[in-house]
Amino acid sequence: MKQTNVKPADGRLGILVVGNGAVATTFMTGVLMARRGLTKPVGSMTQYDKIRIGKGDDKKYLSYSEVVPLAKLDDIVFGTWDVYPQNSYQAAMYAEVLKEKDINPVKDELEKIVPMKAAFDKNYAKRLDGDNVKQCATRWEMVEELRKDIRDFKEKNGCSRVVVLWAASTEIYVPIYEPVHYTLAALEQAMKDDDREHIAPSMCYAYAALTEGAPFIMGAPNTTVDIPAMWELAEKTKLPIAGKDFKTGQTLVKSGFAPIIGTRCLGLNGWFSTNILGNRDGLVLDEPANFRTKEVSKLSTLETILKPEAQPDLYGHGNDEDTQYYHKVRINYYPPRNDNKEGWDNIDIFGWMGYPMQIKINFLCRDSILAAPLCLDLCLLSDLAARAGRYGTQRFLSFFLKSPQHDYTRGEEPVNHLYQQYTMLKNAIREMGGYEADEEID
Fold it and tell me: Domain Myo-inositol-1-phosphate synthase GAPDH-like spans what residues (predicted)?
């Protein structure tokens, strides 16, 4: 490893997960099993991917941990918050993502992970009805209790560092409201005034994490750290933030396949995406107000890759306004499928002289199996970024996220093109490892 200014990954890394459901328990079980040598962390970039360092005769391909000092799986300690009181072993069994034989070897460790009471507001997730919740008079009180949870966890488990990861349900859609969300002072005042309309519980978790020295990662499409007030807090605390929404199934396909259409200069008339899933996420998203949050995140991917204004002949038609292609996203709650989500994409394209063609993609994916390695990578890389002195929005983590954070107040567009995101990821790791960033995004 080259000499870098990144602090070493000494001591234990606490990973505090908001939510103890299918994604969280699959993530935790997999890490615990992998470090006992009982499974392989397949799908994790930090554990498997290699980056080219140098060029020509000096070229070599190194794993991330050979380029930068990453925390080791053995040093991770898990904690969680959830509205249901069941420990992580009980929750993993209930989720029915993993087989019993893949959970039981680490039963003893999972049973010790007992969720702390959640900061919860039923108005933000009407389909959830747990009783393991904090009784807080105000949003500010929520923040104070969460801060104490983080301090107590860190002390009890002897952690030198903590990362907080949201792997809980999608909240109802919270439109960005300038008088509350644009400055830190206004956000804090709204929390103290108990403004429940503009302050989501997830914002309380993010605020608590950052004020307790922990990077925060938003794994759902919630309005949380993608507001100027949180950017201000991240600057003030000198901590990384990342979000939003894990890029697992259909959007991963979209961000990888749309560049094929764009690179080949084919035209697009429409892209229809629909999903069925039956886990707790599906139940929550069956509520229209919660689906709206997810819809905004899923719709944004395509429009930043195939831009009608850049190529009007290819993408500038198709709907009633005759301005661009038609793009529709649907999610349907279907309990028999549980965590085994199915995504269908119908893509209407056209080619030479306008002749139409179709592409059909049917992805029978396992939601939590795809999300778990993202959780690991986002936590390890956010911890790395913090030790490297990087703070604010970590755009290099866009590769893992469905609706990457960006500064919309300055007209910035998110990068959704998967291969451009991958270049950003590799260059950031090269730089933190003391090497030159040597790939460009055209």
Answer: 249-368
